[in-house]
Amino acid sequence: MQKGKMFIISGPSGVGKSTVLHELFKNREDLYFSISATTREPREGEEDGVHYHFISVQRFQELIDAEALLEYAEYVGNFYGTPKKYVDRAMNDGKDVILDIEVQGALQVKTKRPDTVRIFIAPPSWEELERRLTSRGTDSPEKVQKRLLRAKSELQTADVYDYFVINDSVENAVRELSAIMLAEHCKPADRMKILSE
Amino acid sequence: MQKGKMFIISGPSGVGKSTVLHELFKNREDLYFSISATTREPREGEEDGVHYHFISVQRFQELIDAEALLEYAEYVGNFYGTPKKYVDRAMNDGKDVILDIEVQGALQVKTKRPDTVRIFIAPPSWEELERRLTSRGTDSPEKVQKRLLRAKSELQTADVYDYFVINDSVENAVRELSAIMLAEHCKPADRMKILSE
Q: Which fold does the domain A6-195 belong to in CATH?
């Protein structure tokens, strides 16, 4: 069986990444969505092993010491990381793995696993991103501007990414994501193994 | 408008490349199939500008001198080459261009146009390629063995190629080809132009 590949999917707040990923995962038994470990408390409705692996700070430290995390970062006083264990198991089962992580995490993973494919989901335009952030109604105008600035600065580090998917429509974005994942399985490294048999 | 990209599609005799390309081109107004120039005489039913651009040896030499060919080669006493003119026009019109050429031509094009994407259509196995060559009934067993040897030697130069499409079924091969072409349009070089506007 062919081993699965690892795909990092990043994108600025408001770009519609969760909707795109939700659509991508429909009827795709061959995909595995990586669940992060975190030291923060579960929120209402969040389940251990479904939304996150909820662990203690001590346990998180143990995972770091054992080099059992592909990447980790602190965010507002809590730690978040990607456990290697589940990712490797899925890949060995022939499943492609999706990591929903940000630019810093993408850099860490790329160092450890150079064959990881990194995809950035971008808005069709900055005006459209501003419109989407505003229409959510959850952020103040100032917060919206801060998110926009952050998104633009993220794009400055965009040479970390191998592909850019523009989320002009969910359907198009999913079509492009699926195409990228299939195309990556046609790369010589994968295929020569089959052909030299 | 986004400029089209150039794709080289190669594959050994008997792999089913023409069938795959025929299917790929169905309902695809956004694709352009490059027509070669040749110094050989038209065969019965062949039309100038459809199957080939039929030109004189003198004219072919003029095209070489004017650097108007992307690649050219001699085959059994006749010359075959890819005129730049039509390819560039199609790409400027935003169309993706398919060049159906062999390994040597692929090397020449890559030197002149490093951003060309090269795809090799491979058989699912050597046994299957032998079966397909034999079942065509056009070649003697010796000729079939020669074609097989040539196919295997072509695969030795396969690091010239960016992707391998395995033609286990026409449907799968077309799906992979289409995915590769779409994925290539998601590369940073193309997308950053849009996003920096």
A: Rossmann fold (3.40.50)
